[in-house]
Amino acid sequence: xxxxxxxxxxxxxxxxxxxxxxxxxxxVEDVEPAISGAWTKLxxxxxxxxxxxHVEEIKSLYQSLEKxxxxxxxxxxxxxxxxxxxxxxVLPGEMFRIRKEVPWGKKPDASIYTSEGILxxxxxxxxxxxxxxxxxxxxxxxxxxxxxxxxxxxHLEKIAGxxxxxxxxxxxxxxxxxxxxxxxxxxxxxxxxxxxxxxKRGVQVVSPTxxxxxxxxxxxxxxxxxxxxxxxxVANSLRALARGMEQVEEVWRKFxxxxxxxxxxxxNVNDAYQRLKDEFEKIRRME
Length: 287
Prior knowledge:
Blueprint: H1 3-22, H2 28-42, H3 44-70, H4 72-90, E1 96-98, E2 110-114, E3 117-122, H5 128-135, H6 138-163, E4 174-177, H7 181-190, H8 192-200, E5 203-206, H9 208-286
Parallel strand pairs: 3-4, 4-5
Antiparallel strand pairs: 1-2, 2-3
Helix pairs in contact: 1-2, 4-9, 5-6
């Protein structure tokens, strides 16, 4: 049984006791033994102790993540790791590359190869000012927010120049990946105009969730294209078969015509043979 089950049991028990007390069907001095017995029978002391241990583990993990995000290099590694994990979970391995140079000389954190072009993904998002902003207050917070948005603008400008190159083989858009839903939604609220302007220029800012949805659409498109290609191959095969059948029909028609003529000629020869045979029999009988 889960911790949630035990907690819900306690809540339900307390509600029942409260209702009975209100209706005077239970005395207050009867409540303590009932609760104590239920507590012991369900082993809640042990379960809550386990829950407290899990809470401490989660707190320790959260603190570790905070420390990791405080260091720019560690943030970059985390972004690359989550990006690669999402890509490998959704797309077949032959469709994407990790930190490989593209034909025009740039090296994105990831690149997806489609029949329409290469989709580049950058995961080196500038979060230093954002992390400082979270700890600041008042005017200092506003100042850091503006600096963070300005850093984002510069970064998106670089992505537009490096990875949106349809004339050199890229798709007409690229992804700027942020490995944090919180930062992504902060930008949607506080820098919506910036995201909109760069989206028009082909740079789409994505979080883990929105990246996953986009990749699923890409995979669905690839699958649909493969089905379309297979359907075209089948159609081409049917057309070739139809042409073959027409050729066979033409040959068969000629053969049948010749066969019919031959049959008719054979019939004429047979009639002539029968007449000749009859005449021969008459002559033989005259002897």
